[in-house]
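cron nightly-structures :: item 1 of 1
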Amino acid sequence: MRYSLIMRTEKRNENNNQVYPAPCSSTALSRAFQAVGCGDFDVMKTHAELEKAKAKWKVQAQICDRAEMEIPTLSKVTDRTSLLMDLDSIPDLDLYGLLNASHLDFVHDICGIVRHMDRSTYPGKLTDCFVPRFCA
């Protein structure tokens, strides 16, 4: 199976000095990351997985935009990056349902996630038996 890698090395053409991406094997990248102490290198195997991840990140960003507009005091409790990480930590969260939720359900889920997320581990876990309304 051939992998589509996000990271690529660069190769210069000696004749016209242009830079071309040169494909890199996943094994070579894994060894390079382990050599500098970054642990395992996670390779996205297909273009479809990359597109799915991009769509997920886009919806999470839209949820953050809506949260900043509808919950003005949210910035006193958490920042955008923490909220994105919290949303990403919940595997069964229905992102599209949350994005299109009524105001009350949206505020319940966002404030509950921010309040009950245990960030001491990765991925974070919801504590105090809190379950978002838009959890599949």
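cron nightly-structures :: done
Residues 47-126 form one domain.
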